[in-house]
Amino acid sequence: MNAQTLINSLNYRRISLPADQDLDFEVSLVSQNTHELIPNSVFIAISGFKTDGHDLVTQAINQGARLIVAQKPLQVKVPVVYVRDTRRAMATLSAIFYDHPSQKLHLTGVTGTNGKTTVTHLLDAIYRYHHIKTGLVGTMYHKVDNQYLKAINTTPANHKLQKLFAQMVEAKVQAVSMEVSSVALVQGRTWEADFNTAIFTNFSQDHLDYHQNMAEYAHAKSLLFSQLGNLQKGKTAIINQDDTLADFIITSTEAQILTYGINTDADFQATKLHHHAQGTDFTLQALGQSYAVYLPLVGTHNVYNALAAIAGAYVYGLDLKTIIAALKTVTGVKGRLQLVTGPHEINAFVDYAHTPAALANTLQTLKPLTQSRIITVFGCGGNRDADKRPKMTQIAQKYSDLVILTTDNPRQENPADIILDMLRGLDDLSQIEIELDRRQAIRKAVALAHPGDVILLAGKGHENHQIIGDTITKFDDVAEVQAAFTCN
Ligand SMILES: CC(=O)N[C@H]1[C@@H](OP(=O)(O)OP(=O)(O)OC[C@H]2O[C@@H](n3ccc(=O)[nH]c3=O)[C@H](O)[C@@H]2O)O[C@H](CO)[C@@H](O)[C@@H]1O[C@H](C)C(=O)N[C@@H](C)C(=O)N[C@H](CCC(=O)O)C(=O)O
Ligand SMILES: Nc1ncnc2c1ncn2[C@@H]1O[C@H](COP(=O)(O)OP(=O)(O)OP(=O)(O)O)[C@@H](O)[C@H]1O
Ligand SMILES: N[C@H](CCC[C@H](N)C(=O)O)C(=O)O
Ligand SMILES: [Mg+2]
C-alpha cells in the first residue's frame, strides 16, 4: 500500500516533510515495535508504561522506518505525521494495512473476570465439530486453524491482532473465538476489531493493580459492549443474566441482547443440574424448547461457560441439536480442573483459579467429590492485585482442611511479602502451612495426603514456567504432582 494513501485515512493534525523526502513509497509494515521494523516500515510511537516510543525514533529509522506517526514533537530526518492519539492511529492504520481482516471473519469476543479461556475453547470445539475452520485468540496461545502461535498477552497489541486476523483470513478461517481482557479494552487493543458477537461471563475482583477500583474495572469490561453495534446493526451481546453486573452491561450496548443463566428466566437457561464425577447433566430451556445436555466438565461454573458457548454458536447460525451433540465430545481445557490421579485414591486437580471467585467456585466444585479432606496449595502472583491475596486465603481456608501457602509467579516482589499479604487479617492459622518453594509445597501436600484425599493446586493451571524476579524457569504443576506421586 502506498504511504500517502495510507496516511490519508488518518485525521492528522500536520505532516512534517523534510525537503529530500516524499510519501510515495510502498509501505512494507506498520508497527509500534522497533524490533519488528524492516525497510519502508511505518513506525507508530506509543507512550507506554515502561518506554516512550517517541524516544526510540532514531532506532526505528535505523531499523528501516521511513515514516513516523507521533503525538509529540520530534526532530528527525524522515517524514512525521502528527496525530492527537497514536494508539488510535495505530488501530486505523493497521486495519487498513491488513485490509480490515476482521470484517471477513465471524468474530466473537469474550470478556469477564473468569471463564474466558474456557468459553472460547468450548465455542471453538463446537465450531470444529461442525467442520468450520477456526481461529482462537487467548491466554494459552493464539491459533490459526491448526497452527499454534505463542501468546504474550491474552489479547495482543492492536497491530499484532490485525496481523493475526489477516493470517486467519489467508488460512480461510471462518469463525474466531477471542478473549478480550479489560486491560486490552482500556488500551484500545481491540479498536477496529469488528466483533459480530460479544459475550459477558461474570464480574468479580481482579486486576486492581491496573484499574483504580471496581467501578473502573466494570467500565473497562463494558467497553466491549458499548463499542458493539455503534457502527452497524446485526450485532449480538450475550449476557450472563445471573451476574450482578448484567444490567450495567445490558444498558451499555445498542446491540441485540441474548441472556443466559441458571437462577433466572433467561433466553438460554440451564435447569435440573446433576453433577457427576466426570461431568454434568442439565436441561437447556431455549427458544421455547427443552433439550437434554451432557457436558463432560464438572462444576456449576462450567455450566455457565457452556451456556455462553451454546448461545455464541447459535448466533453463528448453528442448530441447537448439533451444538448439544458437539458439547458431548468436548474435553476439558488444560489446567482447568485437570485431574491427575495418584496412588491410594488420592486425586490432584490443577486449576487456574487466581481470583477469589474462581477459587471459591473450584473448591465448591471439589467439595462434593470427596468424603475425605481437601488440601489446597496456592500462592498469589507478584506485581498483581494485592487486595485479592487475603481474600483468597480466607476462601481456601473456608473450604479446605489444610492450606499450604506457596509462591505463584512472584515476579519482582519478595515472595515472603506476598505471603504476609495472604495472611493479612487471619486469626486462625491452625490449618495453614507455609512452604515458599512450590515444588516442595506440592511434595508436602502429597506426603500429607491420606487415601481418598483431594489435592488442589491452584493459580498456575496450564502455565509451564515460574517467574521469580527476572528469571523464568520451567515449572508445570501437572508434571510436579505426577513426580511427587511417583516419589511417594
Ligand atoms: C502493563 C501493560 O499492559 N503492558 C502492556 C503494554 O506495555 P508497555 O506500555 O509497558 O509498553 P512499553 O514497553 O512501555 O513500550 C511502549 C511502546 O514502545 C515500544 N517499544 C518498546 C521497547 C523497545 O525496545 N521498542 C519499542 O518499540 C513498544 O512496542 C510499545 O509500543 O503494551 C504492550 C503491547 O501491547 C503489552 O505487551 C504489555 O503487556 C504486558 C506484557 C503485560 O503483562 N500486560 C498485562 C497487564 C496484560 O495486558 N494482561 C492482560 C490480561 C490477562 C488476563 O487476565 O488474561 C492481557 O490481555 O494480556
Ligand atoms: N464461569 C466461571 N465463573 C467463575 N469461575 C470460573 C468460571 N470459569 C472458570 N472459572 C475459574 O477461573 C479459572 C480460570 O478460568 P479461565 O481460564 O477459563 O478464565 P479466564 O477468564 O480466561 O482467566 P484469565 O483472565 O486469567 O485469562 C478456572 O480455572 C476456574 O477456577
Ligand atoms: N491473566 C492473569 C493470570 C494470572 C496467573 C497467575 N499465575 C499469576 O501469575 O498471577 C494475569 O496476568 O494477571
Ligand atoms: Mg484467559
TrEMBL record:
NCBIfam families in the record: murE, PRK00139.1-2, PRK00139.1-4
Catalytic activity, reaction form: UDP-N-acetyl-alpha-D-muramoyl-L-alanyl-D-glutamate + meso-2,6-diaminopimelate + ATP = UDP-N-acetyl-alpha-D-muramoyl-L-alanyl-gamma-D-glutamyl-meso-2,6-diaminopimelate + ADP + phosphate + H(+)
Motif segment (Meso-diaminopimelate recognition motif): 408-411
Subcellular location: Cytoplasm
Role summary: Catalyzes the addition of meso-diaminopimelic acid to the nucleotide precursor UDP-N-acetylmuramoyl-L-alanyl-D-glutamate (UMAG) in the biosynthesis of bacterial cell-wall peptidoglycan.
Gene Ontology cellular component terms for the protein in this record: cytoplasm
Cofactor: Mg(2+)
GO MF terms held by the record: ATP binding; magnesium ion binding; UDP-N-acetylmuramoylalanyl-D-glutamate-2,6-diaminopimelate ligase activity
Occurrences of domain Mur ligase central (ranges): 110-311
Taxonomic placement: Bacteria, Bacillati, Bacillota, Bacilli, Lactobacillales
InterPro entries: Mur-like_cat_sf, Mur_ligase_C, Mur_ligase_C_dom_sf, Mur_ligase_cen, Mur_ligase_N, MurE/MurF_N, UDP-N-AcMur-Glu-dNH2Pim_ligase
Name of the protein described by the UniProt record: UDP-N-acetylmuramoyl-L-alanyl-D-glutamate--2,6-diaminopimelate ligase
Residue numbers binding meso-2,6-diaminopimelate: 384, 408-411, 459, 463
Pathway involvement of the protein, from the record: Cell wall biogenesis; peptidoglycan biosynthesis
Residues annotated as binding ATP: 112-118
Ligand binding (UDP-N-acetyl-alpha-D-muramoyl-L-alanyl-D-glutamate): 34, 153-155, 181, 187, 189
Top-rank taxon, per record: Bacteria
